[in-house]
Amino acid sequence: MTTAKDYRSDLKPVWCAGCGDYGVLKGLTQALADLDILPENLAVISGIGCSSRLPGYTRSYAFNSIHGRALPIATGLKVARPDMTTVVVGGDGDGFSIGLGHLPHAIRRDVDMMYAVLDNGIYGLTKGQASPTTAVEFKLERHLAGATERPLNPVLLVLSSGCGFVARTHAGNLPHARAVMREAIRYPGFAFVHVLAGCVTYQKPSYAKQIYDMCDMLPEDHDPTDFARAVEVVSQERFALGIIYRRPVALEKAGQALPIATAQG
Ligand code: SF4
Q: Whose CA is nearest to atom 2 of ligand 1?
């Protein structure tokens, strides 16, 4: 049996102390150990950004690739090597701005991988600009009057694009992040995980608390196969945490038989 430590490289993370990305790295390595996936059977792919440094901190086949291009690279890898467990990580700028055009098409292709977006509502690596998910009312160090454009609802976008597995977690809730990522990796198709994370350096200290206070666990009787309910859940202002939508696996397996041909057809 593997342990979380088996998935950590010798590189020491250069993230700021208190960055939410630490929690995601820890939750991911724990989830991989839960599933006992051997590091030599694992590929972790990212784009560019603070959170996209994560593959370097894992012991796996790791690729810190091109800005916004992690999904097509991971798709090519998984199609060529279907035996590899494929994990894609990145930030909200990388995934919802520069790389947004790739997201619905990766969902359509439905190639088996987990895509975890570490959403801190900011461009951290380039020192604090507003990202596609920065809420208008949140004043950033570099946007004292607040962001001027309305934020994207990435989870609604992913759901409406037909994603078979849609979940949300919070980087500060390690057991929850671990469990959600474990289920996403197990899912036999394209699985999207929205991870709420904080940037302690370029956001006001109150930001993380504001986001945390807006989170609610999905009720125990939430039915993740109910698409209409899932749309309702992600259309609310508050952040529901848990597995929001999960297409029944039997249907997903049938859809997986010809993932690329389906997309091209
Ligand atoms: Fe994390 Fe922000 Fe520091 Fe980047 S700048 S490592 S997102 S705390």
A: 199
The β-bridge partners of 165 are 191, 246
Tell me the CA–centroid distance for residue 32 and ligand 1, in Å: 24
Q: Which of 217, 87, 238, 219 is nearest to 153 (CA)?
A: 238
Q: How many residues does the structure list for the chain? A: 265
First-to-final CA distance of the chain: 42
State pTM to two decimals. Answer: 0.92
Q: What is the token pair recorded at 152?
A: 């994207």
**CB-based burial of residue 14 (10 Å sphere; 0-12 exposed, 13-18 middle, 19+ buried)?**
exposed
Task: Read off the tokens for 180.
Answer: 């959600």
User: 66 vs 70, 90, 99, 192, CA distance in Å?
Assistant: 7, 11, 10, 20
Structure tokens at 111: 């190639």
Tell me which DSSP letter residue 4 carries: G
Kindly report, residue by residue over 99-126, the tens digit of the pLDDT: 999 999 999 999 999 999 999 999 999 9
